[in-house]
């Protein structure tokens, strides 16, 4: 690349950065146009991760790029897994997290007809001492797309039950870290590794390739 080409590329990059910065602040006071908003909607925010303490016993780190949690942390105790009076999972509904900007928020529409379950990273059955705590696990900022039959409703559910069984043996409870993974796979056409994942819905919610629970 020549000196002139290099200066031209740098100038273009600076111009785009200034435009993005200007648009970002204009979004918040309502002066940005729809076209300007599109510049940022599917691009990372300045801070791509938002940490939300949804309940006294659990928190999520939400990834605004993928529209799913980066990780979740919960304190699981004998008290949190004990069913409280009048607590009913049927009264809990999946709902948007209004603390996440609409540009980076997942919605129920994203999951509708996708073929994937709305999979809890922090299970509702882990926090059923009160209706409020159970409800707080249904924020979509705590949810990621999961295959239903064979995983979310089977193997993953078995792992969650195992964690609840373990907590009965520890007076202080357990701290559990859960989240998605996007692991590389070998492409047989060129024998190279690539990280590829599906996205669903109008907000292009990422479908993780794997999950972890520690």
UniProtKB/TrEMBL annotation:
<feature type="domain" description="DNA/RNA non-specific endonuclease/pyrophosphatase/phosphodiesterase">
    <location>
        <begin position="54"/>
        <end position="214"/>
    </location>
</feature>
<dbReference type="GO" id="GO:0005743">
    <property type="term" value="C:mitochondrial inner membrane"/>
</dbReference>
<dbReference type="GO" id="GO:0003676">
    <property type="term" value="F:nucleic acid binding"/>
</dbReference>
<keyword id="KW-0255">Endonuclease</keyword>
<dbReference type="InterPro" id="IPR020821">
    <property type="entry name" value="ENPP1-3/EXOG-like_nuc-like"/>
</dbReference>
<feature type="active site" description="Proton acceptor">
    <location>
        <position position="120"/>
    </location>
</feature>
<dbReference type="GO" id="GO:0006309">
    <property type="term" value="P:apoptotic DNA fragmentation"/>
</dbReference>
<feature type="binding site">
    <location>
        <position position="152"/>
    </location>
    <ligand>
        <name>Mg(2+)</name>
    </ligand>
</feature>
<dbReference type="GO" id="GO:0046872">
    <property type="term" value="F:metal ion binding"/>
</dbReference>
<dbReference type="InterPro" id="IPR044925">
    <property type="entry name" value="His-Me_finger_sf"/>
</dbReference>
<keyword id="KW-0540">Nuclease</keyword>
<dbReference type="InterPro" id="IPR044929">
    <property type="entry name" value="DNA/RNA_non-sp_Endonuclease_sf"/>
</dbReference>
<keyword id="KW-0460">Magnesium</keyword>
<dbReference type="InterPro" id="IPR040255">
    <property type="entry name" value="Non-specific_endonuclease"/>
</dbReference>
<dbReference type="Pfam" id="PF01223">
    <property type="entry name" value="Endonuclease_NS"/>
</dbReference>
<keyword id="KW-0378">Hydrolase</keyword>
<feature type="domain" description="ENPP1-3/EXOG-like endonuclease/phosphodiesterase">
    <location>
        <begin position="55"/>
        <end position="214"/>
    </location>
</feature>
<dbReference type="GO" id="GO:0000014">
    <property type="term" value="F:single-stranded DNA endodeoxyribonuclease activity"/>
</dbReference>
<dbReference type="InterPro" id="IPR001604">
    <property type="entry name" value="Endo_G_ENPP1-like_dom"/>
</dbReference>
<protein>
    <recommendedName>
        <fullName>Endonuclease</fullName>
        <ecNumber>3.1.30.-</ecNumber>
    </recommendedName>
</protein>
<dbReference type="InterPro" id="IPR018524">
    <property type="entry name" value="DNA/RNA_endonuclease_AS"/>
</dbReference>
<comment type="similarity">
    <text>Belongs to the DNA/RNA non-specific endonuclease family.</text>
</comment>
<dbReference type="GO" id="GO:0004521">
    <property type="term" value="F:RNA endonuclease activity"/>
</dbReference>
<dbReference type="GO" id="GO:0005634">
    <property type="term" value="C:nucleus"/>
</dbReference>
<keyword id="KW-0479">Metal-binding</keyword>
């Amino acid at each position: 690349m020549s000196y002139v080409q290099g200066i031209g590329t740098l100038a273009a990059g600076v111009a785009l950065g200034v435009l993005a910065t200007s648009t970002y602040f204009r979004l918040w006071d309502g002066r940005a146009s729809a076209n300007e908003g599109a510049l940022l909607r599917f691009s990372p925010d300045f801070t791509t991760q938002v940490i939300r303490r949804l309940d006294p016993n659990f928190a999520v780190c939400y990834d605004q790029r993928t529209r799913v949690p980066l990780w979740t942390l919960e304190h699981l105790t004998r008290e949190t897994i004990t069913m409280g009076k009048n607590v009913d999972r049927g009264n809990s509904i999946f709902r948007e997290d209004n603390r996440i900007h609409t540009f980076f928020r997942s919605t129920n529409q994203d999951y509708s007809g996708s073929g994937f379950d709305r999979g809890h990273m922090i299970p509702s059955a882990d926090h059923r001492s009160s209706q409020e705590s159970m409800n707080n696990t249904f924020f979509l900022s705590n949810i990621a797309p999961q295959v239903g039959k064979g995983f979310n409703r089977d193997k993953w559910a078995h792992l969650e039950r195992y964690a609840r069984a373990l907590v009965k043996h520890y007076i202080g409870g357990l701290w559990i870290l859960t989240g998605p993974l996007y692991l590389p796979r070998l492409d047989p056409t060129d024998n190279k590794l690539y990280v590829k994942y599906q996205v669903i819905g109008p907000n292009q919610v990422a479908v993780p390739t794997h999950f972890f629970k520690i």
